[in-house]
Every structure is written in C-alpha cells, then in structure tokens.
Amino acid sequence: MHANEEVRTKRVEPSREVVCVLGASGYITSWLVNLLLQHEYSINATVRDPHDLKKTELIEEGSFDLVVEGCIGVFHTASLCYFDVEDPQ
Which UniProt keywords apply (predicted)? Predict the structure, then answer.
C-alpha cells in the first residue's frame, strides 16, 4: 500500500460535533455538506433566499453569531453576487 492509498482508506471516526457551512446552497458546497454528513457531523448551514436574491446579511456584523455559536469549525463558502450588470463588457 502506498502512502496516498493509506490516507484515502483511513477511516474518520464518527462525530456528533457541530460545524457551520456558510453558503450551503451552492453546487460545490452541497458535496461538502454531503461529506460532512457521511462523517456524522451535525451541520448549521446558511443558504441564499431564493425569493430575494438581493437580500444579504453577509456584511452585517454579528449576523452569523447564532449560526456559528458552539461550532468546532466554519466553512465560509458564501460570497456576494451581483446579478445586475449595466455594461457587461
């Protein structure tokens, strides 16, 4: 067995620890969430409001305090997206 194979086959012990995923509605992040669930983590997640794409609290200080409280780690995958472009060139 090569060193890389050993890393790939190493089992991660199940956990009930809580992690936070900011921006969990994205395609790539959905895979992250799936992987975390497979390893039995509990997840606090934030997602974009599909009914109000302009609504964001991403830059408001303290807006994520409750969702990250008690978490052992945070995956920050959220970003500001602007959908209105006046001059795309």
Answer: NADP, Oxidoreductase
Q: What does DSSP assign to residue 86?
A: S
Look at the pTM and tell me if it is higher than 0.70. no
Q: Which amino acid is at 55?
A: K
What are residue 2's phi and psi, to 5 degrees? Answer: -80, 160
Judged by DSSP in three states, 21 sits in strand
What are the tens digits of pLDDT across the range 31-57?
999 999 999 999 988 887 767 654 557
Give the closest residue to 77 by CA, choosing from 52, 35, 48.
48
